[in-house]
Every structure is written in structure tokens, then in C-alpha cells.
Design a protein that fits this description.
The complex is a heterodimer of chains A (652) and B (121).
Chain A: H1 2-29, H2 32-61, H3 68-73, H4 80-85, H5 91-113, H6 118-142, H7 166-180, H8 182-194, H9 200-231, H10 241-266, H11 270-293, H12 307-328, H13 345-377, E1 380-382, H14 385-405, H15 416-439, H16 446-473, H17 476-482, H18 484-508, E2 511-517, E3 522-525, E4 528-539, E5 543-554, E6 557-562, E7 565-569, E8 574-578, E9 580-584, E10 589-598, E11 604-612, H19 616-632, H20 636-651
Antiparallel strand pairs in A: 2-11, 3-4, 4-5, 5-6, 5-7, 7-8, 9-10, 10-11
Helix pairs in contact in A: 1-2, 1-6, 2-5, 2-6, 5-6, 5-7, 6-8, 7-9, 8-9, 8-11, 9-10, 9-19, 10-11, 10-13, 11-12, 13-14, 14-16, 15-16, 16-17, 16-18, 17-18, 18-19
Chain B: H1 2-19, E1 24-27, E2 39-50, E3 58-63, E4 70-75, E5 88-96, E6 99-102, E7 108-110
Parallel strand pairs in B: 1-2, 4-6
Antiparallel strand pairs in B: 2-3, 2-5, 3-4, 5-6, 5-7
Classes of the chains: A alpha+beta (652), B alpha+beta (121).
Chain lengths: 652, 121
């Protein structure tokens, strides 16, 4: 079986090399049939990668420990669903998943755009082929999931933190996002190579970017929820390099999604867009490099692996080649129009882009700082949470405000009078709400208060837009379905506002307490009284569950009984913290109870946290998904418009 | 205009980094002697730790990952589940009279990676 997997990967490598080399030659020499054959090679590569993945999956399900990978990541006690998730629980499997998704995206993107934009696709195929070649080569030569051994009786099992339903969805979604950024990158490079620097590559890849961006966003939120529920320290984001690794490409892609609209509408920012797509793609590669190379100290602590130098080399090649391409095509990338006013939609988009990229780059600086300082002064210095929090506030709060202003301001040039008319109500509402909040004591945190008022402003503008639009068209559904991009975008903005409120509420207005309790004793935290009753334990198939029964009171009334504790996993020989969360929907806050340390006598060091509004984060995820789906949904009218435009561009 | 905004963003960044952004040095126990102020130390736990971190301070010895130099550590605060002899840990603190006085709550264990689990010998 392992031989079949190995062979399938070698076939994939051959096909991707063919797609890259023959595709490039065909595009240069204008050989149409050869170009078509190179595109077909990408379809075939998807087939052979599917075979390899099926081999690994079946080995995981059969617990075939003669596969080193299977023995290292599963055990016979592991439930079936987690045996499947072990596919991406380790390095080799993750790489295979990456290649599989890349082949899937490539085949679909080539298939869907072949007719529409043939002159673009001939140059996109070799780029996709080259990127896939790198991953196929890694899997064949450097890090094979099909290494075999004499089968041990039992496997090492899966890390307990990964034995969680979230881990079924979180890594594949992140990969869908990371890898999905390859498509706009490949089309961008294809456009440069072909010398077709009009907005067609952007139009052709808008949905691909949106899919990747949505997957990356949702994947991160699921990861945050997992960290919150499962890791049991009461937080959801720690600015850890590995978390930042996913945030950075998302920020770059967010900037890209906004700036492409300027190119579509006004023919500006061409160079900027190409640079953004390169940045987003390289950051997604860099994320993988970070997590695999062991160069960074992270709580996630990845042992050093042989992949680091390979990835670094690949990133360097990608950066050098793509920048050289941009430089070569610079004459073709001149803007058709100029910025007319600093108070206009274009300018607002530009500010948004600068802030997003600034935030992205400051995070990048924080992430690479240990490496840079190691090279520069000999000691590796780490930058902590205050640095990131500072820049999130400095760049994030203006971004939040811009989200309310940008979509409503006129293109080209906006007059102050029209601005006043548009923003009078939202501004009044947010100031009013700000005063009410101060009266209720929200002034204890200034950034929190600013975040709340800005959020109210943006929400007010969004609601007003929907109300005005519905009045004009007469029907809410017609309004949205006629202009999916715009109103879907507003819904996504609303999601970001919810996210901002959730982050501000849970980080600026929370409270916490720590105490050692014996059974029968109580502690207080933020208006709640916690009474520790008893300690119990029971045996589950693959772990021993130890639970403390804690009664939670508000005043005299019993609110809930929660059971924080620990799980002791047998095969993995690890203990995991099982935090108890009580969600109070009326007060819109969570109470988290952690049994931090359990002593043999039954005494427990409890840690309790009250997190206001933290659930808005998860709600934001749902709203975000809705908004993205609305913008993504195919729109026949838009398709016709685009078809006409393609025709004009190809023949004009 | 673009140049101006970029310059403004850069200025904020530089001001902040020059004022606060020196970062905490991450070093190994062997590099500790002679340091002043707060550092972040990475090393392996050796010997048998004593105390629970709450009632009595947790005391343990850290050794260079690939070396023999060690430093005793005194720590208060929550002790991660994965903390035990042989684990690699990261902890912040200041060196006082040859002992690392740790910042409460700063102890972090580096768990055997999810991407490459430690092979049992």
C-alpha cells in the first residue's frame, strides 16, 4: 500500500513539472495544444494526489502501524473521527493535504477560466505547476508520509489537545485559506507574464480570493474558540507566532480585496495590487515556514524539522522572481487615473489599505524580531503582548472608524456638506451611546470606550444604508440580491464590528480571581460566588476524567453547577485542563472556571474569569460567513456584465 | 499624500519601538550570569521539582537544551499540566544571587509538538 502512495506522489511530481515546464514553453511559443495539455496535467495531478491521500486515509482508518506516520499519530484507542483528523495532525500529512488542496484549486481555477480568459490561463498554468512542484518534491524527497517500519503493537496516539471536534475543521480551513491564496497569486503572475495587466486577472480571481479569505478567517475564529474552550487558560488569542502566522496573510488578503475594487472601478493601484497579492502569498508560505522550522519560540513549540531551509529557500525564490516580474512589467502597470481628492472613496480605501498593511507589517516585525535581534546583536529578544496590543489599538481603531466612513463617501470627490448629511445621524448616535456608556462606568478603559463608540457609529451607518436601500428598491431581499457584493460586504463589516465589540468587552472589562479551596469553601469573582462541593472521577475509553463540582451563585440564587477538571490520557501520557464555561446570555458574559491544580487531599487552586461579550466573537464568525456567502453567490447579471467586459478587453 | 501617511505610520512605529520595543532577551541558562533586568529563559527541567507554586514556591533547576550549565529557579503561580522533569520550559525572570526569580505566572511548557511527537524510546 505504501508503495502505491509513494508511486502516486512521484506521478504527481512528474505531472506538475510537466505543467510548469511544458506550460511555460507552450505559452512562450504560442503552442495552443501543448498549453492545453499542460493544463490537463494539472487535472491529472489532482487525480494522482487523490490516490495518495486515499492510501494514507485508509492506513489511518485501518490503524496500519507499518506506516510510521500512522504509528506516530494514532492509537487503536483513538476514535475514528480523530483517526481521520490525524491526517493533518502531523507534518507529512499536513503537507499532503496542502498539495491536495493546491491541486484541487488549480484544476478548478484552470477549468473555470480556460474559456473566459485563455491568454491569461496559459501563463497561469506554469505558475501553478511550479508551486505544486515544490510541494510534490517535498513530499517525495524530504518528508514522505509513506515511510514504513516494522509495525509496533500500539501507536503513540494523538496529542490530547487535538482530540477535539474543532481540530476536525480548524486545520483544513486554514489550509483552504493558505493554499487558496495561491490562485490569485498565480493569476497575478500569469497576467504579468502574459503582459495582460488590465483588471481581468483581478476579476477572474475575486471569488477565489474571497473563498480563501473566508476560510482563513473562519478557520482562525474556530482556532480561537478551540483555544478558549479546550486549552483552558481563559483566553482566545495570545499573539503567538503561530497564530500571527495565520493572521498576517488574512490582513494582507483583506487589504487586497479592498484595493482591487479601486483597480476595477478606477484603474488605479495596479502595482500596489500585484505587490499585495505577492505579500499575501509569501506570508502564507512564511506561516508554514515558521511553524515547521523551529526558528521561533512559541507555546506551540514545533520541533525542528528538515523543512525549514527548504521553505525559506522557496520563499526567497518566490519573492525574487515575482518582484523581478513586477519590475520588468512596470511600464504596463501605470495608473490610468489619479487620485483627485483626499476626501473620496478612493482615498478612504487607500487609508484602509495603508492601515491594514501597517498592522500586518508591524505584526511581522514582532514575529521576526527574535531572529533579527539574534542576527544583529547575538541574543534573541522576544516582543511581548503589549507591543501587539498597542499596534492593534493604534491601527485597528482608525480602521474600525474608516469602515463606517469608506462605504458611504462619494467616489472621486466628496463635499463637506454631503458628508455632514450622511454622517450626522450615525455620529449623533455613537456620541450619545458613548455618553450613556460613560454613565454606566465604561470609562474605566479608554480604548474600550473608543472601540464601543466607533462600533456604534459603523453599525449605525450600516443599518442606515440598509434602510435607505430598502426604501429605494421597495424590498429588502431584492436590494441584497441585486447588489450582493455591496450588501454582503456590509454584513461582513457588521461581523467585524461584532468582533471588535467582543474583543474590547472581553479584554478591557473582564475580571478574574484565584484561590485555593477545600470542598465546602467559596470564592468570589465579578459578582458571582463559587462554591466548591466535591471531587469525582470516572474512566472514559482513552482517559481518566477528574471533575470538581462547583456551584455558581449570583447573590443567593444558584445560577449553575459547573464541572471544571482534568483529563488524564493513557496512551499519550498527558494531562489536559478541562475548563468549565458558564454562559450567561442575559448579562452577555461568560464565567470560566479552571481547576488549575488539584492536590491529592482534594484541595484545588481555582482560577475564575468573567469575560463580558466574549460570545460576540463566535456570533461574528456566523455573520462573517453569511456576508461572505452573499458576496460569493453567483449573480447572473454580474456574469453577463463581466462577459461583456472580458470581450471588450480581449478585443479592444 | 501616500508618502505622508506611510511616514506617519512609520513614525508611530519607530517612536513606539524606540521607547518600549526593546523586547525581552530570550537566553539559555548558561547565558544568564552577568545579566541585569528581566530575561526570558529557555531550558530543560532537571532533577526533582519541589513545591506547588502556590503555598510553597515551586523550585526547580533548568539546564541548557544542549549543554550542562544550569540555574536554580524560584517561581510562584500556576504550574502547567505538562510541567515535569525533562520537559522544555520558557520562563521570565531576573537573576538575583545566582537564582532566577521568576515573574509570577510566566512559566510556559513547550509541549511535545503536535507536528512531530516525541518518539518513546
Amino acid at each position: 500500500m505504501a508503495d502505491l502512495g509513494r508511486a502516486a506522489l512521484i506521478v504527481t511530481l512528474g505531472l506538475t513539472v510537466y505543467a510548469a515546464v511544458a506550460g511555460a514553453w507552450a505559452a512562450r511559443a504560442h503552442r495552443r495544444r501543448l498549453a492545453a495539455s499542460a493544463g490537463n496535467a494539472l487535472f491529472a495531478a489532482l487525480g494522482s494526489t487523490l490516490v495518495a491521500s486515499a492510501v494514507l486515509l485508509s492506513a489511518l482508518l485501518r490503524h496500519d502501524f507499518s506506516f510510521t506516520y500512522v504509528a506516530d499519530h494514532t492509537s487503536t484507542e483513538l476514535p475514528t473521527s480523530y483517526s481521520i483528523s490525524a491526517f493533518w495532525g502531523g507534518q507529512e500529512g499536513s503537507l499532503l493535504l496542502w498539495l491536495l488542496i493546491l491541486c484541487g484549486y488549480s484544476a478548478a481555477a484552470v477549468f473555470l477560466n480556460r474559456r473566459r480568459a485563455p491568454d491569461l490561463v496559459v501563463w497561469t498554468v506554469p505558475v501553478l505547476g511550479a508551486v505544486s512542484t515544490f510541494f510534490a518534491f517535498m513530499l517525495v524527497a524530504v518528508s514522505s508520509p509513506f515511510a514504513t517500519q516494522t509495525a509496533p503493537a500500539q501507536g503513540a496516539g494523538l496529542n490530547p489537545s487535538l482530540q477535539n471536534p474543532y481540530m476536525l475543521a480548524h486545520p483544513p480551513l486554514l489550509y483552504l485559506g493558505y493554499v487558496g491564496l495561491t490562485v490569485p497569486f498565480a493569476f497575478g503572475m500569469g497576467a504579468l507574464l502574459a503582459g495582460r495587466t488590465d483588471e481581468r486577472w483581478i476579476v477572474a480571481t475575486r471569488r477565489w480570493t474571497l473563498v480563501a479569505w473566508t476560510a482563513l478567517g473562519i478557520g482562525q475564529l474556530i482556532g480561537a474558540h478551540w483555544a478558549y474552550v479546550e486549552v483552558g487558560w481563559g483566553g482566545y488569542y495570545a499573539w503567538d507566532p503561530v497564530e500571527n502566522a495565520a493572521l498576517m496573510p488574512w490582513l494582507a488578503a483583506t487589504a487586497f480585496l479592498h484595493s482591487v475594487m479601486i483597480q476595477e472601478k478606477r484603474g488605479m493601484l495596479k502595482v500596489w495590487n500585484v505587490l499585495l497579492v505577492i505579500l499575501a502569498f509569501c506570508l502564507s508560505l512564511f506561516g508554514t515556514f515558521l511553524t515547521r522550522s523551529g526558528v521561533i519560540n512559541s507555546i506551540h513549540s514545533f520541533t525542528e524539522s528538515s523543512l525549514g531551509p527548504w521553505f525559506l529557500g522557496f520563499i526567497c525564490v518566490v519573492v525574487a522572481t515575482s518582484l523581478a516580474l513586477v519590475f520588468w512589467r512596470l511600464p504596463l502597470l501605470r495608473s490610468k487615473t489619479r487620485l483627485e481628492s483626499l476626501v473620496s472613496r478612493e482615498a478612504a480605501f487607500l487609508y484602509n489599505n495603508l492601515l491594514l498593511v501597517a498592522l500586518c507589517l508591524t505584526i511581522l516585525w514582532g514575529v521576526v524580531f527574535p531572529m533579527v535581534s539574534d542576527l544583529a546583536v547575538g541574543t534573541s529578544r522576544t516582543i511581548g503582548r503589549p507591543y501587539y496590543d498597542f499596534f492593534l489599538r493604534t491601527f485597528g481603531l482608525p480602521l474600525l472608524l474608516l469602515m463606517g466612513i469608506g462605504p458611504l463617501i462619494a467616489w472621486r470627490r466628496a463635499s463637506l456638506r454631503s458628508l455632514g448629511k450622511t454622517f450626522l445621524w450615525p455620529a449623533a448616535i455613537s456620541v450619545g451611546l458613548g455618553l450613556v456608556l460613560v454613565a454606566f462606568g465604561a470609562g474605566s478603559s479608554k480604548p474600550g470606550l473608543v472601540a464601543y463608540t466607533f462600533s456604534a457609529f459603523v453599525l449605525a451607518t450600516i443599518v442606515l444604508e440598509f434602510v435607505r436601500g430598502t426604501r429605494a428598491t421597495g424590498s429588502f431581499t431584492r436590494l441584497v440580491s441585486r447588489n450582493r457584493r455591496r450588501y454582503g460586504g456590509y454584513i461582513v463589516h457588521a461581523a467585524i464590528v461584532l468582533l471588535a465589540i467582543g474583543i474590547a468587552g472581553s479584554s478591557a472589562y473582564g475580571s478574574s480571581a484565584e484561590r485555593k479551596l477545600l470542598p465546602g469553601q467559596t470564592m468570589r469573582v465579578g459578582g458571582y460566588t463559587l462554591a466548591y462541593r466535591s471531587l469525582t472521577q470516572h474512566r472514559d475509553p482513552n482517559h481518566l476524567a477528574i471533575r470538581a463540582a462547583v456551584d455558581m451563585y449570583r447573590g443567593r440564587t444558584l445560577v449553575a453547577r459547573v464541572e471544571p477538571g482534568k483529563n488524564d490520557y493513557f496512551a499519550e501520557q498527558q494531562v489536559s485542563n478541562e475548563m468549565a464555561i458558564h454562559t450567561d446570555w442575559l448579562r452577555a458574559e461568560d464565567v470560566d472556571v479552571i481547576a488549575d491544580q488539584i492536590e491529592p487531599g482534594g484541595a484545588i487552586y481555582f482560577k475564575a474569569l468573567v469575560k463580558p461579550l466574549v460570545n460576540l466573537l463566535w456570533l461574528a464568525g456566523l455573520v462573517f460567513l453569511c456576508g461572505s456567502l452573499i458576496t460569493l453567490w453567483p449573480d447572473p447579471r454580474e456574469e453577463r456584465r463581466l462577459a461583456a467586459r472580458y470581450y471588450a478587453l480581449a478585443h479592444g | 499624500m501616500i508618502a505622508l501617511s506611510v511616514a506617519a505610520a512609520l513614525a508611530v512605529f519607530l517612536l513606539y519601538t524606540s521607547a518600549f520595543g526593546r523586547g525581552t532577551p530570550t537566553i539559555s541558562p548558561g547565558q544568564l550570569p552577568g545579566t541585569h533586568g528581566r530575561v526570558s529563559v529557555v531550558g530543560t527541567v532537571v532533577g526533582k521539582p519541589t513545591g506547588d507554586g502556590h503555598q510553597q514556591a515551586l523550585r526547580f533547576v533548568m539546564r541548557d537544551r544542549d549543554g550542562t550549565k544550569t540555574v536554580p529557579v524560584v517561581y510562584r503561580g500556576s504550574v502547567p499540566d505538562l510541567f515535569k522533569t525533562g520537559r522544555e520550559v520558557v520562563i521570565d525572570g531576573t537573576l538575583v544571587d545566582g537564582t532566577l526569580r521568576a515573574v509570577p505566572g510566566s512559566l510556559v511548557t513547550k509541549c511535545p509538538s503536535k507536528y512531530a511527537p516525541a518518539k518513546s524510546a
